[in-house]
TrEMBL record:
Protein name from the UniProt record: SEP domain-containing protein
Highest taxon of the lineage: Eukaryota
């Protein structure tokens, strides 16, 4: 049976009722429909632009973008922008070595160890005043060494009574133990280790500690790069996340030092901002300035129903 292509008008009708996110994908992959696609109003139920957190949402789909180091030893891209897990500080840009923008803006001074209630790179509120950049970095290196010693303690620890009920197992010390991790920089004592009442909990704390060590090493890596004049390779990735938890990279561009400057080309990848017109019902939006910049026209949905 021979199939016939849709007429131009029929194609426009089909496009009008396609899910916007599917429509973006089809238009970017099938150039032959782009003329018709751009001529059809875009119906969106929810539009949200999180300017400070580098993401935007179209209906149920979230697009988020960030800077990734792509030449890591384990071959897995590592995100260097965004909010850091250890100290909750937010990074937008990095320099050629990967040093965070808030550190460069402070003339290379690391946060913390200044007498003020400020977290250092590892998330510790260390009130010790260290008056040199090198001294603060050395302090962090010492903290990483202690964290590895803690991991060794956990690897060798065996709970005295591993026969605990399932309910006790769920409440056997993980929140308290995480608090101990940040309370002071030292090896654990026997009393603290005894709060881990089952082997399952010990394994979970070991996993958590391994994660912390990886994060600490990644925070110190840019300074090692600077010392050895190593310049990592960075890319900006545009990721697409669904409500079901799935996430995939839909676009990659080379990072040239300014994430915000790359926003326009990234957003164009999903075609939303460059529409000559759009039909929107906006649940919550922070994009008024973008409507003007990209010459979007906003119409009430009822006009087209």
């Amino acid at each position: 049976m021979n199939s016939k292509p849709l007429t131009y008008d029929s194609l426009k009708t089909v496009i009008l009722y396609i899910n916007p996110n599917t429509r973006f994908l089809l238009s970017s992959r099938i150039p032959s429909i782009q003329t018709a696609e751009k001529a059809v109003p875009l119906i969106i139920n929810v539009l949200y632009f999180g300017e400070e957190r580098h993401h935007f949402k179209v209906n149920e789909t979230v697009y988020h973008y960030g800077i990734y180091q792509v030449d890591c030893k384990d071959k897995v891209p590592y995100r260097v922008s965004g909010q850091r897990d250890l100290n909750r500080k937010y990074t937008c840009d990095v320099d050629k070595f990967g040093i965070r923008d808030y550190i460069n803006k402070a003339d290379g001074w690391l946060p913390g160890n200044n007498g003020r209630p400020e977290y250092n790179l590892f998330g510790f509120n260390d009130r010790e005043i260290i008056s040199t950049k090198e001294g603060r970095l050395k302090k962090l290196e010492g903290m990483l060494k202690i964290e590895k010693q803690r991991l060794n303690q956990l690897m060798n620890y065996r709970p005295e009574n591993s026969l605990v009920s399932e309910q006790d197992d769920e409440q056997s010390g993980i929140p308290d133990f995480k608090f101990i991790c940040y309370e002071s920089v030292r090896k654990y004592n026997k009393k603290e280790l005894r709060t881990l009442k089952s082997e399952k909990v010990v394994r979970e704390v070991i996993e958590y500690t391994n994660y912390r060590i990886r994060q600490m090493e990644n925070e110190l890596l840019p300074f090692e790069n600077q010392k050895n004049n190593v310049r990592p390779e960075f890319e900006i990735h545009l990721n697409k996340s669904q409500e079901d938890g799935s996430c995939n990279v839909i676009e990659r561009v080379k990072y040239t030092g300014d994430l915000h400057k790359a926003e326009e080309s990234l957003i164009n990848c999903v075609y939303i901002w460059m529409k000559p017109s759009a039909v929107l019902t906006i649940e919550y939006s922070r994009v008024e300035r973008l409507f003007v910049y990209f010459k979007m026209t906003v119409w009430p949905l009822e006009k087209f129903l």
